[in-house]
From TrEMBL:
InterPro entries: AAA+_ATPase (IPR003593), ABC_transporter-like_ATP-bd (IPR003439), ABC_transporter-like_CS (IPR017871), P-loop_NTPase (IPR027417)
Superkingdom assignment: Bacteria
Keyword Nucleotide-binding included in the entry's annotation: yes
Record lineage: Bacteria, Bacillati, Bacillota, Bacilli, Bacillales
MF annotations from Gene Ontology: ATP binding; ATP hydrolysis activity
Matches recorded under SMART domains: AAA
Pfam families: ABC_tran
UniProt protein name: ABC transporter domain-containing protein
Protein family membership: Belongs to the ABC transporter superfamily.
Stretches assigned to the ABC transporter domain: 13-241
Keyword Transmembrane helix appears in the UniProt entry: no
């Protein structure tokens, strides 16, 4: 009998009880976190929650006050140093020479970073769709192009893990979509694991396969994108007159106890608990005019606000 072998993907990065204290106070406090190979890990938290500090710790730019990190399973000082060569960072925009082209800037970083394979310059340019920029000076680039060039610098070392701190911040809608397509391709076709922070939750939701929610320096929750959607309910929202009275009536007629009225004064019914045809038939029979109808799909923003709201309370 042939039995399938189920292999767990290895952790690419782990933080164990990591704290970082500045004079002004704690930026991280006992943070635990795990990024598995192949994840696009959306790192979510309000301003000052500690996202950049953690990313800088991964890059060795900041030392933790307490706790430890593992990169590709390595944790000794020397081993971490070697493991960092397998990571590409876009935490702060690398300095670009404004009078030089994308290729010339990449050639410079290729040299500075001591990368041996000269093919990487062309490959990195292709990966970020900047091959047709010719001799154009980077001073004439849009923010989206500069950001893509910054990503190309991070890609020069053929990283297995990319650490990206708000890479779509300030980009226009087209720039955001370009960046999403580039990152999706890197993850799917090249198997690159990605840690990405962003405040643009609607966009992050289109990309991430897993989320980590950080609040005041601690990780509040890690959850797979699919689990997040399952855990939050889709709601049918109906605008109708006398919402409270109508809600009571529908509860009785449909035998559904959890019909509520939301802050917009609409009836709110969990989609999974009702048959839509029956709902419409009852509304018709009772002569209740439907003034508005929509389906609120569970999303990252609602989930995050509920989660952090709960933590803050
Ligand atoms: N070099 C530093 N010296 C002192 N305090 C710092 C330093 N760097 C960060 N902090 C503080 O640590 C906390 C966490 O900052 P961090 O930049 O990591 O948050 P963040 O989640 O990346 O925020 P944002 O979304 O605004 O970028 C903040 O209170 C910040 O003021």
């Amino acid at each position: 009998m042939i039995r399938g072998v189920f292999r767990l993907k290895p952790a690419v990065f782990e933080a164990r009880n990591v704290s970082k204290q500045y004079r002004s106070g704690f930026a991280l406090q006992g943070l635990d976190m795990k990024i598995m190979e192949g994840d696009i890990y959306g790192f979510v938290g309000e301003n000052g929650a500690g996202k950049t500090t953690l990313m800088k710790i991964i890059g060795g730019l900041v030392q933790p006050t307490d706790g430890r990190i593992l990169l590709f399973g390595q944790q000794g000082k020397k081993e971490l140093c070697a493991a960092r060569r397998r990571v590409g960072f876009l935490i702060e925009m690398p300095a670009l020479y404004p009078h030089m082209s994308a290729e010339e800037n990449l050639t410079f970083y290729h040299h500075v970073l001591g990368i041996r394979n000269p093919k990487r310059i062309g490959e990195a340019l292709r990966a970020v769709a900047l091959t047709d920029t010719g001799n154009k000076r980077t001073s004439e680039y849009s923010l989206g192009m500069r950001q893509r060039l910054g990503l190309a610098v991070a890609l020069l070392g053929s990283p297995q893990l990319l650490v990206l701190d708000e890479p779509i911040n300030g980009l226009d809608p087209a720039g955001i979509v370009d960046m999403r397509h580039i990152l999706e391709r890197l993850a799917k076709e090249e198997g690159v694991t990605i840690l990405i922070s962003s405040h643009i939750l609607g966009e992050l939701q289109l990309l991430a396969t897993r989320y980590g929610f950080i609040h005041k320096g601690s990780l509040v929750q890690e959850i797979a994108a699919g689990e997040l959607l399952k855990s939050a309910q889709a709601m049918i929202c109906i605008a109708a007159p006398n919402a409270e009275k109508t809600a009571e009536l529908l509860k009785q007629r449909l035998q559904i106890p959890d019909i509520s009225v939301n802050t917009a004064g609409e009836l709110q019914i969990p989609k999974a608990s009702v048959d839509l045809e029956r709902l419409m038939a009852v509304l018709l029979q009772e002569g209740i005019p439907v003034e508005g109808f929509n389906l609120s799909v569970p999303n990252l923003e609602h989930y995050y606000m509920d989660l952090i709201g709960g933590v803050k309370r």
